[in-house]
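Troubleshooting entry. The earlier prediction with SN-glycerol-3-phosphate gave an output that would not parse, so I re-checked the input for stray whitespace and re-submitted. Clean input:
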Amino acid sequence: MQLPKVIGHRGAAASAPENTLESFRRAALLGAGGIELDAKLAADGTVIVMHDDRLDRTTSGKGPVRDASYRTIAALDAGRWFGARWAGARVPTLRAALDEALRLGLFLNIEIKPCPGRDRETAAAIVALLHKHWPAGRPLPLLSSFSVASLEAARDLAPELPRGLLVWNDPEAWRREAGRLGLRTLHCARQYLPSDLRAVRAAGLGLAIYTVNSRAEASRLLRAGADSIITDRPDTVLAA
Ligand code: G3P
Ligand code: MG
């Protein structure tokens, strides 16, 4: 599958509050071809865009996301922690993020990031949202996850949606999972690269590396066979 060379991590996380519409707009402004975001369920089943399992780090709230209703989350400030000028930014619903990515013309990588124990239902809710709202004729979003259970659910419910496996310290996991999960891409940590990057591509998988914020490293990885760089700093990496 054709991946953009530069995908903004949580939008443009180095220069805007991560996983907000403001961050997605900033990624577009800085020249990213796509964005990555983290999607999970609020207590009432609304799919929201947030990385952590707790509200504490990136919002004015406290406690586990899985116990908070969307009504509560929507009232929180998701920008002030990053800087006073971002005060008033909100935690977006995935629905709002889809609309924004479409409006900006950005490729969308939705990371399924379930709260503990919600792997299958999170994938199911994301797939249902895409089936309902993603317009025909627009390039399909790429679903990625560290959770094999989430990817299995996505495969069963929406075989047509491209899927990518996220790995941390087991970069060869694609060898056993690619066929079974019907993977189109592999997303590796820069700290734990597969022994042979070109073998990943030879197997027909697109290869994305996260989270690369230096121009020299991005250009070395692209030369070595990576298709896409997931970065907090799209403008820095773009020059590679
Ligand atoms: O999708 C790449 C990257 O976002 C995975 O790790 O923890 O930043 O979501 P994390
Ligand atoms: Mg992520």
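This one parsed fine. Residues 119-133 form the longest helix (15 residues).
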